[in-house]
Design brief:
By secondary structure, this protein is mainly beta. 0% of the residues lie in helices and 54% in strands. It is built from no helices and 16 strands. It has strands at 48-56, 69-81, 84-93, 101-107, 113-117, 138-143, 152-169, 172-196, 201-220, 223-224, 227-228, 231-238, 242-248, 251-255, 263-268, 270-279. Strands 1, 2, 3, 4, 5, 6, 7, 8, 9, 10, 12, 13 and 16 form a 13-stranded antiparallel beta sheet that branches. It has a 3-stranded antiparallel beta sheet with strand order 11-14-15, with no helix packed on it. A hairpin with a 2-residue loop joins strand 9 and strand 10. The protein is globular and about 60 Å long.
Length: 281
């Protein structure tokens, strides 16, 4: 399930269980134009970014030094997708030419950043019994500098059909009936100074945090069963540079029935990507 991610890559996990609808509703909100908006993601063909990528241990939260490697992201083409001019970005490790993944991004006249993806990749969580839901792709607004610090907007909310979740205990496997919804939001954070090593330059990077919250509850032996934990992805963009840092926090989803010990549902490693070099038009 672990794949190297950049923003929320269309083939990778994250953000938790994926659904994707049409364009984000915030696209239609009235926005006062900035005469000189920050260009958070320059998307000309042949633009590239080189990242140092390190896994984050799923239990300790520490960086796993032996996992460190480099990965290059390159804009390879542009095409129109659902009435937006989209840029196709390929990701390859620097030690061979095999393609890891692609993602699809777009910006508008206000330089807001959108990505075209399945927002909730269901299979990647490997939750036993989770229903098979057909999930179309759509455009999502993931970075908007016209927002104020602390502003949050919803990307999507989707009801999940009821399903049975097996809970292993000392007395055998108990079955819990789970239902609820998944909610994805973005929050604009603070500006942080980040150094780009190969350029020996320090940039001001704007943070955006994407959170996918599985608001799922159920019943087991007449007791409530909350499913706890969420997926958190933090992105830092710099003007006229692009994405300078990406951090996918480790994922820990668990059930706490109360009548038995807490049960792990899934535990997944995180990932840190730090920009070390780039070339953009």
């Amino acid at each position: 399930m672990r794949k190297s991610l950049w923003l929320l890559k269309s083939g990778g996990m994250l953000c938790l269980l994926a659904l994707a609808l049409v364009a984000c509703s915030d696209d239609d909100d009235p926005v006062t134009p900035d005469p000189d908006p920050k260009q958070f993601l320059p998307l000309a063909v042949d633009n590239w970014w080189l990242y140092e990528v390190t896994d984050i241990d799923s239990v300790s939260g520490e960086l796993k030094a032996d996992s460190k490697h480099e990965q290059r992201a390159t804009v390879v083409a542009q095409e129109t997708i659902e009435e937006r001019l989209a840029s196709i970005i390929e990701f390859r490790p620097t030690d061979d030419e095999s393609m890891l993944d692609t993602n699809i991004n777009s910006t508008d006249d206000l330089e807001r950043v959108y990505q075209y993806l399945n927002l909730f990749p269901v299979d990647d969580l490997e939750i036993p019994g989770f229903p098979d839901i057909p999930l179309p792709k759509g455009w999502y607004l993931i970075a908007d500098d016209s927002k104020e610090v602390g502003d949050e907007w919803e990307l999507d909310s989707r009801d999940i059909p009821s399903f049975t979740l097996p809970i292993p205990t000392d007395l055998g496997t108990l079955e819990a009936t789970i239902s609820g919804k998944l909610v994805a939001t973005v929050k604009k954070g603070e500006v942080q100074k980040i150094t780009i090593a190969n350029k020996a330059e320090e940039v001001e990077a704007q943070e955006f945090t994407i959170t996918i919250d599985p608001q799922l509850t159920g019943r087991i032996l007449n007791n409530d069963l909350p499913l706890q934990g969420n997926v958190v992805v933090r992105l830092w963009f710099a003007d006229k540079v692009g994405l300078v840092q990406y951090r996918q926090e480790p994922v820990h989803l668990f059930a706490d029935p109360g009548i038995v010990d807490r049960v792990d549902i899934t535990r997944l490693s995180g990932e840190l990507q730090v920009l070390v070099d780039y070339s953009v038009q």
